[in-house]
Specification:
heterotrimer; A alpha/beta; B mainly alpha; C mainly alpha; A: alpha/beta; 10 helices; about 25% strand; B: MetI-like fold; two-stranded antiparallel sheet; about 70% helix
Chain lengths: ~290, ~300, ~260
């Protein structure tokens, strides 16, 4: 099970430089019958099986579930960081591999993953630099993105001078650098304190709305999923699979007021019930 | 007081302590040293465990220093320190050439091994074994191979090139290991990120693996410099090259019974040589400071 | 508890496990083949590089004198290694306990790490007399001292704050803290230092023979036979020197592995 061949061809597409045109009518993401298994010491481990999922352009979808349910694995498959063992993944109508080469998506992880020897600006510019965007255009885009995430005064600082929340904002700016129409986020706020977390959730909701990008967002926080998403995909382990999809249509207004509203609570309860598989009994819940 | 000045002060104190220990033992210890297990009436039996303290075995520290300013070999020859400086300079130059060769060879080997695990498995054990080969055995072979090569190709193979090649044999090892480990050092998340940007091996090497390897590379380069100096000194001696510090050391040590303070001159020279070589690499590290960010923090 | 399954793409081509054993053997055989081809078949190698077959013959024929020389060099290296390591452990413990001593030792050890130690051999020989092996043992000892000292000192400082807090909260005495926390933390570092020191001690003891002293040992033999043109015999002694180095390296590596398994820190 080697993906080396796909890794190796990465450099060649950059040389051709012409991204294949995306199908405008195609969904941002379509997964059909996607599965992934590993050979571990104790035999075959099925990490993910039978995943069917479609994400419309501009839609915000969260993947939620307990550890081992394969939500991060699914994200890695979408990003073509791993290859699925079965099924098909397309991004704007293209195979995931081609989408990666064409930079159709941006990605952010739980750790900010900034290069410590690069300044904030140089970190944001990294994907542009790798794809041969010229200096002036790069500088303009960095200024734009720093403004978007509110870090204009910090572009010349280095990551070790920033707080965790600020580092994560840089990572989000970096994921947006190539103007992707799909954002992949793997628990980007998982390591932050609650206050920073809520603040960044509001920021992300605003940024997603402003850029119009579709988002696939992995989390294990129910309130976070409900607050951000149009739909919440509930997953379950052994084997990792999708068990339910809960629509959370809370409209365009995603601010702190929303966190107090009764319909928000109703959706949180709905997702919790979907996760536990039974209606929730509040007192004495295990 | 800054940390740097206090470190220097402590260092000076440490050197003073060594000098005091030397002179203190010389003043208090027995002239013929301490022998255990000697058979009475049998000269030269037993094992000497503490050195002899008379002036021929342990000259005074001030005699060593004074000797540096006396003529090298009597008469109107230049003062010893001038000769030592010249010899140390020659050896340093040869060691530097050996260092460069070693860094290039070690760097390429390390990078190849990091890229292909099969190469690592095949080569690494032999690279480790290579360092247990006593290089004095090598010196004459390298030299005669060089001479043969020179005869065949119609050019002259100077002795110093052999010395540099042998120095590089010791220098390449830490670099190969440091590059192998250093290039594998980036966090998985950074590798994933570069992959998500569809960056090829070259771009990943240049923007991620090499910068991330700097904390591994600097100690490796310093060690390589120290090794290159050792290799150069030893190779000079075993090839019989004239003009370097190793040869001078042996020569003056041969006259030590008549002139006990003399071999200390080239000994100090050799010590200074090692310090200068390592210090130069440390200067290189200053230029790469920003790649060491996150080492202290994080 | 379900295992957390994280997808890992193969970054480096993953060859089969048996290749780990086979690859070095193949490389070794290739090197041997090139050597034999160069010396025995083509006959273009310099005279100083004899055929491995001739070296093997000398090894069998003169096994006894080679063994004797190996014993001398190995003893020097071993004595140096033990004495250097002991001194290093004691000084590292003192340096960990006392700031002033640490301040004085740190620059001295840093200097010792980069100076060519073999250059000290002539000095030791005049101090202890040319018939003494002490100079060689001292050089091996100093060479071994540096990595052991550096590693032990680092190991003694590796205890984690949370562990120290736990022991403090149960009112452990300093000696108890040392026994249950500091020592087990430092032991793996000591063994790493020993492994590095072992190879250095052998090389140092061997090379020191070149800078004067008694006329025995592997290094002296290599030098004199190489000079007198008996290349195959000189290389048989080289093989002896490699054998000493390998035994030291393997013994200390094994020790490190064994203790690492006992002490899952």
């Amino acid at each position: 099970m080697s993906t080396e061949s796909t890794t190796g061809s990465g450099a060649t597409t950059r040389a051709t430089g012409v991204p294949s045109a995306a199908d405008p009518a195609a969904p941002a993401l379509r997964a059909t019958g996607v599965g992934k298994s590993f050979t571990a010491r104790k035999g075959e481990v099925v990490a993910l099986t039978g995943v069917e999922l479609e994400v419309a352009p501009g839609e915000f979808v969260s993947l939620i579930g307990p550890s081992g349910c394969g939500k991060s694995t699914l994200l890695r498959l979408i990003a073509d960081l791993d290859a699925p063992t079965s099924g098909e993944l397309t991004i704007f109508g293209k195979p995931a591999h081609q989408a990666r080469l064409d930079q159709d998506y941006g990605i952010a992880f739980q750790q900010a993953g900034l290069l410590p020897w690069r300044s904030v600006g140089a970190n944001i510019a990294l994907p542009l630099e790798l794809h041969g965007v010229e200096r002036a255009a790069r500088a303009a885009r960095v200024a734009e993105l720093a403004e978007l995430v509110g870090l204009t005064e910090f572009v010349d600082r280095h990551p070790d001078e920033l707080s965790g929340g600020m580092q994560q904002r840089v990572a989000i700016a970096r994921s947006l650098a190539a103007k992707p129409r799909l954002l992949l986020m793997d628990e980007p706020f998982g390591a932050l304190d609650e206050m920073t977390r809520e603040y960044l959730q509001s920021e992300l909701a605003r940024i997603a709305a402003e850029t119009g990008a579709a988002v696939v967002f992995v989390t294990h926080s129910i309130p976070e999923a409900v607050f951000l998403s149009d739909r919440v995909v509930v997953m379950s382990p052994r084997p990792g699979r999708i068990t339910d999809v809960v629509a959370t249509p809370l409209g365009a207004r995603r601010d702190d007021g929303l966190r107090e509203s009764p319909e928000y609570y109703a959706h949180v309860t709905a997702v919790r019930e979907a996760l536990h598989g039974t209606p929730t009994h509040r007192p004495g819940e295990p | 007081m800054s940390r740097r000045t206090s470190a220097i002060l402590w260092g000076v104190l440490g050197v003073l302590a060594v000098v005091l220990l030397w002179e203190g033992y010389k003043a208090l210890g027995p002239a013929e040293g301490v022998v255990i297990g000697a058979v009475p009436g049998e000269a030269g039996s037993g094992v000497l465990i503490l050195p002899r303290t008379h002036d021929r075995a342990m000259p005074h520290v001030w005699d060593m220093v004074a000797r540096l300013f006396a003529p090298t070999s009597g008469g109107s020859t230049p003062p010893l320190w001038v000769s030592v400086l010249g010899a140390a300079g020659l050896t340093l130059g040869i060691a530097a050439v050996g260092w460069v060769i070693g860094v290039v060879v070690g760097g390429v080997l390390g990078a190849l091994m990091q890229r292909w695990r099969l190469l690592e498995w095949g080569l690494l054990p032999w690279i480790v074994v290579s360092q247990t080969v006593p290089l004095i055995a090598f010196a004459p072979i390298v030299n005669s191979m060089g001479l043969q090569l020179g005869r065949g190709g119609g050019f002259e193979w100077p002795q110093w090139v052999s010395v540099a090649v042998i120095a590089s044999y010791l220098a390449f090892f830490p670099v190969a290991i440091g590059v192998l480990r250093g290039l594998a050092a980036p966090d998985r998340i950074h590798l994933d990120l570069l992959r998500s940007y569809a960056a090829g091996y070259g771009a990943t090497l240049w923007r991620l693996r090499l910068p991330a390897a700097v904390p591994y590379l600097l100690p490796a380069l310093r060690l390589a410099a120290a090794n290159a100096v050792v290799g150069a000194v030893v190779a000079e001696v075993s090839i019989g090259m004239r003009g370097g510090i190793g040869r001078m050391l042996l020569q003056l040590a041969g006259q030590a019974s008549a002139d006990p303070a003399a071999p200390w001159g080239p000994t100090f020279g050799a010590i200074a040589l090692g310090l200068v070589a390592a210090g130069s690499v440390a200067l290189l590290g200053l230029g790469l400071r920003r790649y060491r960010r996150g080492e202290a923090t994080a | 508890m379900s295992p957390v399954v994280v997808a890992r793409p193969p970054r480096r081509t993953a060859p089969p496990a048996w290749a780990r054993i086979v690859a070095p053997i193949v490389v070794g055989l290739l090197l041997l083949a090139v050597w034999i081809l160069w010396v025995d078949v083509l006959g273009t190698a310099p005279r100083a590089l004899p055929s491995p077959i001739a070296i093997g013959q000398e090894l069998v024929l003169r096994g006894e004198i080679i063994g004797k020389a190996m014993a001398v060099t190995a003893t020097n290296a071993l004595l140096g290694l033990v004495a250097g390591a002991l001194l290093a452990v004691v000084l590292a413990a003192l340096a960990a306990a006392s700031r002033p001593l640490d301040g004085m030792l740190a620059p001295l050890v840093a200097a010792l790490a980069v100076i060519p130690i073999v250059a000290l051999t002539p000095i030791f020989n005049t101090m202890f007399g040319a018939s003494s092996q002490f100079g060689r043992q001292a050089v091996a000892g100093i060479a071994a001292f540096v990595p052991v000292f550096v590693n032990v000192l680092r190991g003694l400082r590796q205890t984690r704050p949370v562990h120290r807090d736990v022991l403090r909260s149960v009112a452990a005495s300093p000696w108890q803290t040392f026994r249950v926390l500091t020592l087990p933390t430092a032991v793996p570092y000591l063994l790493t230092g020993l492994r590095i020191a072992a190879s250095l001690a052998v090389i140092a003891a061997l090379v020191a023979e070149y800078f004067g002293g008694p006329a025995d040992g592997v290094g002296t033999a290599i030098a004199s036979y190489a000079k007198s043109g008996r290349a195959a015999l000189a290389w048989a002694f080289v093989a002896g020197g490699i054998a000493i180095g390998l035994v030291f390296f393997l013994a200390t590596t094994l020790l490190e592995r064994l203790v690492a398994r006992r002490l899952p820190v």
